[in-house]
Amino acid sequence: MDWFNTIIRTFFDFKAMAEVFPQLLAVGLLNTLIISIAATILGVFLGMVIAVMGISPSRWLRVPARIYTDLFRGLPAILTILLIGQGFARLSQSVFGPSPYPLGIIALSLIASAYIGEIFRAGIQSVDKGQGEACRALGMSYAKSMALVVIPQGIRRVLPALVNQFIAIVKDSSLVYFLGLLVSERELFRVGQDAAVLSGNLSPLVMAGLFYLVITVPLTHLVNYFDNRFRTGRRRPAAPTSGLKEVKELDAASPLITGSNT
Amino acid sequence: MSLASNTSRSNTAPDIETFHGSSLELKNLTMAYGDIEVLRNVNLTVKPGTTTCIIGPSGSGKSTLLRGVNRLHEPKSGDVLLAGESALKVNPDILRARIGMVFQHFNLFPDHTALENVALALWSVKKMSKAEARERARRRLAEVGLAERADHRPRDLSGGQQQRVAIARALAMEPEVMLFDEATSALDPELVKGVLNLMAGLGRRGMTMLVVTHEMGFARKVADQVVFMDEGEVVEAGTPGDLFDNPKSERLQRFLSEVL
């Protein structure tokens, strides 16, 4: 049973886990959530802009959106984060101060916006063309028909995909540690790793992993719930009614309808 | 005004108002998808307050013609005159607010109630207050017999009811011309008559209507003018009597023998 003890000591050293727990909760979890949520909010706004540009009738909007998307989706996240985090460090220092934290959030949101833009674009384009046409036929401008009818329907359809994207952002937020965070700014991974160096085993990282799972697993199930609900939609519960009933209703309705000889 | 939600006949019946339809004229209208011309040199005059039915086999360009009138698809050449003025020279959004259109598949907004479907363009295009828009929407829904269904979403309505909401939505904008693109083709058979009667009623009240239809009975009884199209051209036009009882062209004879 030697190997068993080794595994326990390496991964499940409860003392080391208990020691790191308060830090993970107070510092790591907090920062991971702040980074992820901030990056998601920024990413959703940017992504919507990219999506609307991407389906624009004008090529001058479409092509830049395409290039942006290809660029940020095509590069490894770690590379983008390092390029932006170190490349703009001086600029960031004059705006946000010495912490690389805001730059990390911006880098993450740029990456996320490329994915979210594609999610929105797919959602908006999946809306039946007749919806836009009905709007235009009523005299609504392109912008109005998009804003009031088409985009809201598109967004509703991609809510599950957006939650998935949030899960991806939570996991990617661990990469921000490469930029060198202050002690109080460390997210889950960095807190776990620092503790692992001290404890001499991997248990604190396992504990950090559990924290990630506590965030991501419920969300995964939330996605499934969303997915089911939006696919089936809510209907008024009603017993099947005969079409003839409606005919009768119509006959009793208004002079606009009745009294014709067709 | 409290017209809504009363089942007795005298109360649901709104005052019958008359419409003031405008004239519509197509002059050498040619339309194309890319390089393919689907409509060639179509000439057509629709007098104010009259109903013109367009019949013809599939692929004859009937729907394309309607979409040229309100410029959902821009004509390649020729002209469309609405009330005597070129429709191609005005802002298309302003033009479309003057022309109502009803689609084969209704195209109601699924996440809006029947009332909101009708009210949406009233406040967003006509700039009415939301309360005013809802009030007018309610009246229009009552006119098409749907006062009690105002708060239902499209998926809780039958096809016939959905199409009547769509008609109410178009009428609420107070259009000068109404375009119907196979408005009853997607309906269950027992619901077709109700929608056709509603359309006939609009015609009697003075609306100018351009109706693409496969309902020959409707064309014969309601139309002031029937137009037979094939392969992007007007083959024959005249009164229902002319076309149905005395078709001149061989193509129309063949078409009628297939559909009647």
Compact description:
Chain A has helices at residues 2-11, 14-54, 59-74, 77-87, 89-96, 101-125, 129-137, 142-172, 188-199, 203-232, 243-251.
- The overall strand count of chain A is 0
Task: Note the gap between the termini of chain A.
Answer: 91 Å
By secondary-structure content and strand pairing, the structural class of chain B works out as: alpha/beta
Largest sheet of chain A: none
Q: How many DSSP helices of chain A? A: 11
> What letter string, H or E per element, gives the SSE order of chain A?
HHHHHHHHHHH
Give the SSE string of chain B: HEEEHEEHEHHHEHEHEEHH
Q: Give the DSSP E fraction of chain A (strand runs of 2 or more residues).
A: under 5%
Q: Please tell me the overall pLDDT of chain B.
A: 91
Biggest sheet record of chain B: 6 strands, mixed
Could you explain the architecture of this structure?
The complex is a heterodimer of chains A (262) and B (260). With 262 residues, chain A is an all-alpha fold. Chain A contains 11 helices and no strands. Chain A has helices spanning 2-11, 14-54, 59-74, 77-87, 89-96, 101-125, 129-137, 142-172, 188-199, 203-232, 243-251. Chain B has 260 residues and is an alpha/beta fold. Chain B is 37% helix and 23% strand. Chain B has helices spanning 9-12, 62-69, 92-97, 114-124, 130-143, 159-172, 189-204, 216-222, 240-245, 250-259, and strands at 24-33, 36-46, 51-55, 77-82, 85-86, 99-102, 177-181, 208-212, 225-230, 233-238. In chain B, strand 7, helix 7 (189-204) and strand 8 (208-212) form a beta-alpha-beta unit. In chain B, helix 4 (114-124) crosses helix 5. The N and C termini of chain B lie far apart (46 Å). Chains A and B meet through helix 7, helix 8 and helix 11 of A and helix 3, strand 6, helix 4, helix 6 and helix 7 of B.
